[in-house]
Structure formats: structure tokens, C-alpha cells
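User: Hi! I'm working on a homework problem where we have to compare a predicted structure to a textbook description. Could you give me the structure for the chain below?
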Amino acid sequence: HQARQIDMVGMFPFTHGILRGAGYVTGAVNFDGTNDVSARGADLTGSADAATWMFSMWILPASTLGGSAVAQRNLYFAEGGYGYVRLTTADNLLVHFESATSSTFCTFLSTGTISSTNGWSHIAFSCDGSSGALMLRGATNWTSTAFVSTAAPDFTRVNHLIGANSTAVVSPYTGDLADFWMHMSTYIDVRANIGNYISGGKPVDLGSSGAIPTGSQPIMFFKMAAGSSGSTFAVNIGSGGNFSITGALSESTSSPSD
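Assistant: Happy to help. Predicted C-alpha cells:
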């Protein structure tokens, strides 16, 4: 049996040692920035407008951008622009969510930049409904915030997309992506629990259903085993239902585990 111990900061169990730390190996997919996007094509199963939510993912932007409107390189996009996680032209990370009445719920902009020169970068975010934290490469990193705590983000949309803001592949992300994890209606402070996602600059195992960080299955969790087809990245290990790929995701030539 694998030894188990308790994270005394977050008070959540994690598997010790080789499986979650140095021995964990994940694959990654490449978005070409021209015709690649992964889309739900409907609302997420079990989706709810929630003021508590969080995400974690690994990204390696391309040095040469493809597609159009690269000022908005969308990693995640909720239909209608009610929520998105994207890279700006200045290579900062922008997190923005709105309520059903289009009132801004929160806006976070990273102080640090994310580009190909950084190699693989881990990004994580958590929000408890009135405050939040944005993490870049294992450290807190944001400069601007705005909150309207009386209006929860509108997550109940007719489509959710990864890699662009529509199936026509507008405002695409160009680069590699690994271990995309997003949880709604659940909160732990990523500042106190960042070790649940990154250790020694490398990814850790989030569990077969992505439940290890919080103790419950997230609504979205996309990953692929090294050496697998890029099409497997559309299989949602989370509870929200599988996605469909437009274009053809290919396996990245590198991994955040390298």
C-alpha cells in the first residue's frame, strides 16, 4: 500500500512520495492556434452558478502565435464571455467572470508573464466568493482585482470551450496544455494548498477522478497519458461530461513532468 499522510496546512489527504511527486508523469496536448478547440457543445452536467470555484493547469505558450485576435488567447471560455481564462498581448494571465446580468464578479491580472521562454508554467486560482488568489509557478501573483460578491459567476452556459472562444476557433490559444482541472461550488485556498498541485516545479497526481486536492470530483479534469492520442484529452475525467474536438489535437513534444 502507498503510505498516506495528512497535509497539515490544507488538512487534505495526499499520496506520499513517488506517485504524486517525482514519479508522476503526465502527457500534454498541442493547440495549433488555427483550427484546434475542445468544446462541450452544451452546458456542463451538474453546472451551477457558484461563487466558490477554482482551477489549476499547466501551459507552455508557443513562441510563434497562430490564428487571429491573439490578444485574447483563451485557455477557457464560457459561452457569451461570462467567464474566461486567457493570455493577453503582454503575456499576462487574465481571469474574468461575470454574473448572469453581466456584472463583473471578479477580474484578476497576473503581475508576472507567461511565455515560451519560461518553459512550462503552472497556474492556479481559487475564490471563496469575496476574495481570491492567483498563483503563477507556485507563488502568489496578481496585480488587479474586482469583486461584486452579491452576484455569482454565470457558469450555466450553453457551451464551455478550451483553446478558443468558439468552435469557429476565434481568439485561439497556441501552445501546449496539460492537466486542465476546474472545480465549481468548492473552495480551498490555493495559497495554503499549492502543494496539492505542484511540487518541486513539477505536476503532482490529482487522482484518477481529480478528487485528491479537495476530496471531491471536479466538474472538469482533462489530461492524457504520455504517448496517448491527443483525442483522449476530450474525455472529461471530471463530472461535467465529455467534450468534442474541432481540428486535431496532437501530443506535445514535451511535458511539465520532464
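For your comparison, note the following. The CA atoms of residues 74 and 256 lie 20 Å apart. The helical segments are 190-193. Good luck with the assignment!
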